Amino acid sequence: MIYIIGSGIAGLSAAVALKIAGYKVTVITKKIDGGSTPIAKGGIAVAISSDDSPEIHAEDTIRVGDGLCDVKTVRYVTQEGRHAIETLESWGFEFEKGLRLEGGHSKRRVMFKTDETGGEIFRFLLNKAKYLGIPVIEDKVTDLIVKDNTIRGFVTAGRGIINDAEKVVLATGGYAYLFEYTSTQPTNIGEGMALAFKAGAILSDMEFIQFHPTVAKLDGETFLMTETLRGEGAKVVNENGERFLFNYHPKGELAPRDILSRAIYMEMLKGHNAFMDLRDIDNFDQKFPVVSAYLKRHNKDPKKDLIPISPAAHFVDGGVRVNIRGETSINNLYAIGEVSDSGLHGANRLASNSLLEGLVFGVNLPYYVELEWEGISTNDGIINSIRVIDDSSSPSSLPLEQIRKLNWENLGIIRNHERLNKLTSIYYPSRSRPDILVSYLAALAADIRTESRGNHYREDFPNKDPKWEKRIYFRVFNS
Ligand SMILES: Cc1cc2nc3c(=O)[nH]c(=O)nc-3n(C[C@H](O)[C@H](O)[C@H](O)COP(=O)(O)OP(=O)(O)OC[C@H]3O[C@@H](n4cnc5c(N)ncnc54)[C@H](O)[C@@H]3O)c2cc1C
């Protein structure tokens, strides 16, 4: 039996592809409609138009990745994009006609369906999995069982030990929910990374976290105010109605994501609030039906009201280190999608490349599961060995909400040694608390990387340093 952990685009596409290829598969997931996929909006990047090519898509990805992309992986994913999309379509999924242009892309290449592409793909894949008779079971995986560097099974909260696993595929998403302000769902606290790390798998690039500049939160419901809104004339203002972004960048609302996130965050630090002003967008309800429905749910009128926004943790570039097959450093343990670090994103993700990554690695998994194990290489970085502290008998009482606040304030958009050091002295490599372990590793990596690169910004080291064109790896210390 091949067990897939997680029911986002990566897990469900792998489950469907493996089942069609004749394998026995079961999906175990903490919450079926948890994760980022069901709420992902914009679309999925793939070079299919006549004036585009996988090579140009690769160049864009590498430029945004700021010196840390794994070029082999970038070429692989951009080349395989078309095949992955065609496979999804051959299963019955229909994209809308046309391609969208997004920030960082030099060509129109974002395929979409309505304003909720991720949700549409999620619902389609879930139905397909059910139609094929794949069990999709809600349960939480709490431990991996590994002997002689080979996966033997795993433990779940509800079912205890599962020991008929020939292979295990982690597709548990990222850890953006470990921040007070986030665009993702509560399931995503990095549990898959913690499980893999404790079991002996190597992690990498944990310091790179992408913040989205404009996320609304009305009555507790977070909602991504997409880039397209700003492209269509939405303005960002403070409580005095000032378009303060021009104080930070001449392009104002249309400046790059990282600069916008920093600018809005700085304004908030000065005691101001940030709002999105949608009043100048004509035909708002027709153009943005999903945003419009969100505003209506919370009694906001885009023609009259200003919408409170903030930057928020959105996506994590790093995770369980894998090769292009999705193999981790542990035999028969795979990691695909946001939980993994294939090197596609480097120090910063190009918009709409993450749904693509999940789909390519999921759809192609059947080609690799019978091949002899290759594992991963760590030649392009430095390895840090970390001793896990067994706190099972007295787990930390630090509440998750406090961790999220601490991370937002100290591991967020603007970092420095003092703040990161504060975190690494509060957190520790916990055996029993994945949220603490993952926060510890991310803060440690951010402290070690004494430069600013991609989405990692250090005010005490504001420039990029060529000597840091290397990866930070973590593995568990075995004495
Ligand atoms: C609001 C929003 C909009 C986005 N828009 C886009 C976009 O337009 N284009 C794009 O390319 N990317 C977008 N992204 C990013 C993209 O959605 C994600 O990177 C991608 O969906 C991740 O897919 P995944 O399958 O790896 O994981 P997820 O979809 O995050 O799924 C993780 C799964 O793991 C399960 N899980 C977690 N822990 C456990 C555990 N311990 N045991 C069992 N199950 C567990 C969860 O229940 C969940 O089912 C967006 C993200 C957000 C938050």
Automatic annotation (TrEMBL):
<dbReference type="InterPro" id="IPR005288">
    <property type="entry name" value="NadB"/>
</dbReference>
<comment type="similarity">
    <text>Belongs to the FAD-dependent oxidoreductase 2 family. NadB subfamily.</text>
</comment>
<dbReference type="InterPro" id="IPR015939">
    <property type="entry name" value="Fum_Rdtase/Succ_DH_flav-like_C"/>
</dbReference>
<keyword id="KW-0560">Oxidoreductase</keyword>
<dbReference type="InterPro" id="IPR027477">
    <property type="entry name" value="Succ_DH/fumarate_Rdtase_cat_sf"/>
</dbReference>
<dbReference type="GO" id="GO:0009435">
    <property type="term" value="P:NAD+ biosynthetic process"/>
</dbReference>
<feature type="domain" description="Fumarate reductase/succinate dehydrogenase flavoprotein-like C-terminal">
    <location>
        <begin position="438"/>
        <end position="470"/>
    </location>
</feature>
<keyword id="KW-0274">FAD</keyword>
<keyword id="KW-0662">Pyridine nucleotide biosynthesis</keyword>
<dbReference type="Pfam" id="PF02910">
    <property type="entry name" value="Succ_DH_flav_C"/>
</dbReference>
<dbReference type="GO" id="GO:0008734">
    <property type="term" value="F:L-aspartate oxidase activity"/>
</dbReference>
<dbReference type="InterPro" id="IPR037099">
    <property type="entry name" value="Fum_R/Succ_DH_flav-like_C_sf"/>
</dbReference>
<dbReference type="InterPro" id="IPR003953">
    <property type="entry name" value="FAD-dep_OxRdtase_2_FAD-bd"/>
</dbReference>
<comment type="pathway">
    <text>Cofactor biosynthesis; NAD(+) biosynthesis; iminoaspartate from L-aspartate (oxidase route): step 1/1.</text>
</comment>
<dbReference type="Pfam" id="PF00890">
    <property type="entry name" value="FAD_binding_2"/>
</dbReference>
<keyword id="KW-0285">Flavoprotein</keyword>
<protein>
    <recommendedName>
        <fullName>L-aspartate oxidase</fullName>
        <ecNumber>1.4.3.16</ecNumber>
    </recommendedName>
</protein>
<dbReference type="InterPro" id="IPR036188">
    <property type="entry name" value="FAD/NAD-bd_sf"/>
</dbReference>
<feature type="domain" description="FAD-dependent oxidoreductase 2 FAD-binding">
    <location>
        <begin position="4"/>
        <end position="355"/>
    </location>
</feature>
